[in-house]
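Please produce the structure of this protein holding zinc ion.
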Amino acid sequence: MNFAFQIGRIAGIPVRLHLTFLLIIPWVAYIFGQVSEPVFGKLYGFGAVPEPTKWIYSLAFAILLFACVGLHELGHSFIARRYGIAIRSITLYLFGGVASMEEIPRDPRMELQMAVAGPLVSGLLGLILIVLYTQIAPLMGEEHPFSIFLWTLGVINLILMGFNLLPAFPMDGGRVLRAWFATWMPYVTATRRAAAIGKIFALMMTMLGLFSLNILVLIVGLFIYMGASEEERVTTIDVSLEGIRVKNIMSFDPRTVGSEMTLRQLMEIMFQEKHRGYPVVDGSVLTGIVTITDLLRVPEDQRESTTVEQVMTRTIYVIGPEDEASAAMKKMTAQSIRRLPVLKDNRLVGIISREDLVRAIELCSERGT
Ligand SMILES: [Zn+2]
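Below is the modeled complex.
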């Protein structure tokens, strides 16, 4: 369960709300209902607006603020789509949006344009709102809640732009930095540099959050740190496996078992051959996969009378011998499985395991550094 539900589609891209998001809306509304400070001499926040009007405005503000975050993400997505990268969805979380795309482009110019697009949208929204404010405020008065609304939403969009442009990878500014590094150094090195700088920023933010007892800053710092580590890891794996195909590292002619075999027989085979899982083949058709976990679920005294067919997994994810090894990695990670049968023309020709991939990564990790 991933605690997110779809609210609609924009230009064919599913837009989803994360459950944390439902908590943040009233919270943001509450905060902006308290704040009232002059920013460049104009009122920012609805603290000075009388109740209950202020709550209506600050709630509308909170909702529109996250709509603006959604537009920021759409900005990234549109550029990505123009380059033919598929966008799976946009999810709005507690701290902003995440556009989930098939892959992040390895081409620095493409990544640069994509990274800049989001902050550009925020900046434009900010400018439009502030221009609107300069038109509306003289008519309605600067103290009018609607004037305050335009000004506050405009200013926060500019803050969003500035914050996202911090060179703290994996935030947008950090991606710009990586793209720039990648124009004169290998991609993995560029990612490591950008991630290192991102981690320094994250640590500084975490410290700042700790000392000023600002939980929000603390959490954002931790998020950036985790994000930087994760992207660094994924990129290293991707680049190490570049150009390696499944057939280069898979085991050929894997040992298979029949579905009518008893679990006791299976256990003996596992002991002898020290494999943790086997494809189940009947005739020449792959019908399932059975692993040591399936076996251990059955109590010992029942293994004599239970067959492989009763415990095997029937939903089989497979891969082709000509596919990229990194695709096998992605499939295993996405499905949390440890091995994939390799099929060619519907015939089982091999099996690829996580161990095969890890070995390949270790052997090739010096590449691209
Ligand atoms: Zn962004």
